[in-house]
Amino acid sequence: MAYIIFVNSAILSETGMPLAAVTAATCLCAAFGSILMGALANYPLALAPGMGLNAYFTYTVVKAMHVPWQTALGAVFLSGVIFLALTFTGIRQRLVAAIPHQLHAAVGGGIGLFIAFIGFRNAGIIVPSSATTVTLGNLHAPSTALALFGLLLIAVLQVLRIRASMLIGVLATTLVGILCHQVHWQPAPYNLSAIKATAFHLDIPGALHIGVFEIIFVFLFVDLFDNIGTLVAVTDRAGLIAPDHTIPRLNRIFFADATSTILGSLTGTSTVTSYIESSAGVAAGGRTGVTAIVTGILFFLSLFIAPLVGAIPSFATAPALILVGGLMLTGLGKIEWDDPQIGIPAFLTVATIPLTWSIADGLSFGLTSYALLQLLTGRARGTFRRDWMLYLLATLFLLRFIYIVRM
Description:
The chain is mainly alpha-helical. It folds into two domains: 3-335, no CATH class; 336-407, no CATH class. It is built from 17 helices and four strands. A two-stranded antiparallel sheet has the order 1-4. The protein has a two-stranded antiparallel sheet with strand order 2-3. The longest helix has 26 residues, at 213-238. The model has no long low-confidence stretch (mean pLDDT 85).
């Protein structure tokens, strides 16, 4: 998971947030969240700022919607508070039961494509085109060639099942870039007080504005889907799922996640969530919270090497984005593609997230189409009382589409 220190800092710094502050916040929140998860829920689940959510924070909310990063942090804070409320009232668990697990996988896959697309763009492999929207970039450009080198290196390391392949790839690509005089970095004075540049700078009143409701909604539900997918994958691999297919101590897991997200917004980073890379700890034998606690301690120690992050260029982190995005597609195999009732909403979700550059639009298309197909084919009869929350969500999404058209 160590690659998130470099990648999250690189992504969020594009909003204008100071790199050193974001780096410190990333390490601190990952340390706090992982230790809390291990101590409170006793699961081998490590937490850190989520991939996909950090991209949404930077490229959609701040850059595309022109929302100040302080206001975006306020939205993250509010989503964390709402998460806590939903956890205590049991609504969060009902949401999990109401939404088909195939759509969980579709959201994860769509976010994976979104992240990979960003990586290809940052690497210069894909560039804008007035004729075809996007096209192949100049592969002879030094930074693009170095990104391709990093992509190949990480891929080879993963095939060979070398641990820390992402981290090795990022650092090795940076080193080659230094040798080729493509890294231009001037060390800046740093101490742990650098976090003051983002800590408690969130704008909660600004986030309460009605125009930011959609942002809060996306932070809330993407984190929900991401968490559920990770929980099921990791706990299933560890043999920790109960015989009735429920996850024990689910409320404690959600509490740790929501609390970490609130801390993240206060210190200066996007939504904190459980990481699928936790399965590496399970594969190494981890079955209890000790695994997560050790991970958290190591993230805390990473605070003291934060100044080195400034030397990591975007062409070194882009390969990690591409391959992390690819790894997030693995869940798509669980989708029943030959069943139109599931396949069509799943396809719309996967396709529209990267193509609209919006996780919100992907969620809207997927859930709305699923609910409409249920209603129009008569399959909702007899299940409406059980799935009423799903149809409520679909109604909200329809109203959102109407609102967008009117704008």
